[in-house]
Design goal:
Elements lengths: L2 E8 L3 E10 L4 E7 L7 H12 L2 E11 L6 E3 L1 H18 L7 H5 L6 E3 L7 H45 L2 H20 L8 H14 L3 H18 L6 H22 L2 H21 L4
Parallel strand pairs: 3-4
Antiparallel strand pairs: 1-2, 2-4, 5-6
C-alpha cells in the first residue's frame, strides 16, 4: 500500500531527518540511503524497516545535517567528476540522451559534500537516527491505515452490490425454466412427422433443467461474500486470502452465467463481473 512518512530529530549541533515512501508491491523491495556517518547502522535499520513495514516498494533516506555555522563544508569535486564521467559513458553505451539538469542529478548521489572537519558520530546521533526512523515509519503506517479504511469502505460497497444483484436472480428463475421447456417443445413440434414419448420427454426435460439449476452456485457465492467480509474484519495481513476468496467468487459467477440461458440473468452476471473485477484490482493493494 502507498504511504509517506517523515520525521526530524534535532540535536544541539545536528539535525537528523528520515523520509520513507511506500508504493504497492507484492514483496518488500527496499532502497535505503544513509549519510556516511550512519553506515555502520545500515543493517539494523534495514531490519527495522523490513520487520515494521513488511511489504511494498520502499524508498528510505536518513541524512544528517549540521546546524553549526562555522563548519567548513565543500563539494567533493573529484567524486562529482567520477559520477559525471560514468553517466556520460553509460549514456553513450546505451544510446541515451544526456541529462538536462546536471546539478539536480549529481547532487542526489551520496557523499557529494565533504567536511574539512572530522565527522565524529556518538551514540546519541545513532539513537536520534533510530528515533527519526521509528517516527517516520509510524507516520507511514498511519498513512497506510487511512488508505486501508478507504479500501474497506470500497470493498463493503462492492460486496453489497454483488449481493443485491444476486438477490435479484430468483425472480427470473421460474420464467427461465418455462422458456427452456417451451423452446424444447416448440422445436420438437417444428419437426415434421416425428413421434415421441411425452412421458420420456418430461423425464429428459426434468434431467436437463436440473443440470441448469443454480441453487448451489447461489448458495456458494453468498457464502463467499460473507467470508470475504469476515476475513476483511479479521486480523491484518489478509490480502492474499481476500484474493483467493475473490477468485472463488469469480468461479461461481462464471457458472451462473454459463447456466443462465436467460437474457436478464446474463445481464446481472455481467454486472456482477464488473463489480468483482474492481474488487480484484484493489485487493492487490491490501497487505
Amino acid at each position: 500500500m502507498t504511504g509517506f512518512g517523515k520525521s526530524t530529530v534535532e540535536l544541539p549541533n545536528k539535525k537528523i531527518t528520515a523520509e520513507l515512501k511506500s508504493l504497492n508491491s507484492k514483496q518488500l523491495d527496499l532502497s535505503l540511503r544513509l549519510s556516511s556517518q550512519l553506515r555502520e547502522k545500515e543493517m539494523d535499520m534495514r531490519n527495522a524497516i523490513s520487520h515494521t513495514l513488511e511489504r511494498g516498494k520502499i524508498e528510505a533516506s536518513i541524512y544528517v545535517e549540521s546546524v553549526q555555522t562555522d563548519t567548513s563544508v565543500n563539494f567533493n569535486i573529484p567524486l562529482l567528476k567520477q559520477y559525471k564521467v560514468q553517466i556520460e559513458e553509460m549514456a553513450k553505451e546505451l544510446n541515451l540522451p544526456q541529462p538536462q539538469d546536471w546539478y539536480q542529478l549529481l547532487m542526489r548521489f551520496p557523499d557529494v559534500m565533504k567536511s574539512d572537519t572530522t565527522a565524529e558520530v556518538d551514540e546519541s546521533e545513532f539513537t536520534a537516527a533510530e528515533q527519526a526512523l521509528t517516527d517516520a515509519m509510524t507516520a507511514l503506517i498511519n498513512h497506510r491505515r487511512a488508505e486501508g479504511h478507504k479500501l474497506e469502505e470500497f470493498f463493503t460497497l462492492k460486496i453489497h452490490n454483488i449481493r443485491t444483484l444476486l438477490q435479484s436472480v430468483p425472480k427470473y428463475e421460474v420464467e427461465r425454466v418455462e422458456k427452456i421447456r417451451g423452446r424444447i417443445i416448440d422445436n420438437l413440434a417444428a419437426l415434421p412427422q416425428v413421434e415421441y414419448d411425452r412421458a420420456r420427454l418430461e423425464q429428459e426435460m426434468i434431467f436437463y433443467i436440473e443440470k441448469l439449476d443454480i441453487t448451489e452456485e447461489k448458495q456458494r457465492l453468498n457464502q463467499h461474500l460473507n467470508y470475504f467480509m469476515e476475513t476483511m474484519s479479521a486480523q491484518p495481513g489478509q490480502g492474499k486470502k481476500l484474493g483467493f476468496i475473490s477468485q472463488e467468487m469469480g468461479r461461481e459467477i462464471n457458472t451462473l452465467g454459463s447456466k443462465s440461458n436467460h437474457a436478464e440473468m446474463q445481464k446481472i452476471v455481467v454486472r456482477m463481473k464488473d463489480e468483482l473485477e474492481q474488487i480484484k484490482e484493489q485487493v492487490l493493494n491490501v497487505l
